[in-house]
Design goal:
Pfam families: GST_C, GST_N_3. InterPro entries: Glutathione-S-Trfase_C-like, Glutathione-S-Trfase_C_sf, Glutathione_S-Trfase, Glutathione_S-Trfase_N, GST_C, Thioredoxin-like_sf. GO terms for molecular function: transferase activity. The protein is of the alpha+beta class and about 220 residues long. The protein has 2 domains: about 70 residues, Glutaredoxin (3-Layer(aba) Sandwich), CATH 3.40.30; about 110 residues, Glutathione S-transferase Yfyf (Class Pi), Chain A, domain 2, CATH 1.20.1050. It is built from 8 helices and 4 strands. The radius of gyration is 17 Å and the shape is globular. The structure holds glutathione (GSH). The site of glutathione has 8 residues, from helix 1 and helix 3.
Length: about 220
């Protein structure tokens, strides 16, 4: 086995990469990040001083950033499920949707969660209000976009859906998707039924008590 994944099962960006690995049954070695395993934490910090996970190592080569990891897997370990269209023009829509989920949904969601982990006196009320407003705007745009689509970039499951699944999963826990956004809610449900994501969600269940806003009793 050549691939090693430094990751944690409860992390949204790690789940994004796990979906890609599970879709294609790509074998890899888990290097699970945990304070109980300082050796793995040290290896990870040396590989990527930015200390954001996941990080993939392939025979001594380090690949950072979830999107780049999925693109790398598609190039070097292709499987039956192609997560990027061969046509570069069609790939632009996939990459746009991937950026949308990372930059506007996940980043806003993380802002609110990280704020909740801070001591009361260090919290950023204005920043969190802006993040919630961004999530509302993102949900509204996505609802219109998904009205005619099964998956984020159209008919085929792609990199964009790998990003969308954990992004919408945790965003809804953090800032509930309004019931009026029926297309977003239905899409989130489709993602939860996809076996690759269902597996990632199940593997993360034991860590739900860690969610600082309180994990809702659903999903
Ligand atoms: N742009 C990065 C984001 C990765 C990221 O933010 N990962 C979170 C876990 S979901 C993390 O490393 N959190 C640790 C921290 O913020 O200290 C990617 O796409 O991989």
């Amino acid at each position: 086995m050549t691939l090693k994944l430094y990751a944690h099962p409860f992390s949204a960006y790690c789940q994004k990469v796990l979906i890609a690995l599970y879709e294609n049954g790509t074998p890899f070695e888990w290097r699970q990040l945990s304070p109980d395993n300082p050796q793995i934490m040290e290896e990870f910090a040396a590989l990527w001083p930015i200390k954001r996970f996941p990080v993939l190592v392939d025979e001594g080569r380090t690949i950072q950033e979830s999107t780049i990891i999925i693109e790398y897997l598609a190039l070097h370990y292709p499987g039956p499920v192609s997560l990027l269209p061969a046509d570069p023009r069609a790939a632009l829509e996939v990459r746009l949707m991937d950026r949308f989920f990372d930059n506007y949904v996940s980043t806003s969601q993380q802002k609110i969660v990280f704020d909740a982990l801070r001591p009361e006196a260090e919290r950023d009320a204005r920043g969190c209000a802006d993040a919630r407003a961004m999530l509302d705007t993102a949900y509204a745009w996505l609802d219109k976009t998904m009205a005619g689509r099964e998956w984020a970039a159209g008919e085929r499951f792609s990199l964009a859906d790998c990003a969308a699944a954990p992004s919408l999963f945790y965003a809804d826990w953090t800032h509930r998707i309004d019931a009026a956004f029926t297309h977003v809610i239905a899409y989130r449900q489709r993602l939860l039924k996809r076996p690759s994501f269902a597996r990632a969600v199940d593997e993360a269940r034991p860590f739900r008590p860690w969610f600082p806003l309180g994990a809702p009793d659903r999903d």
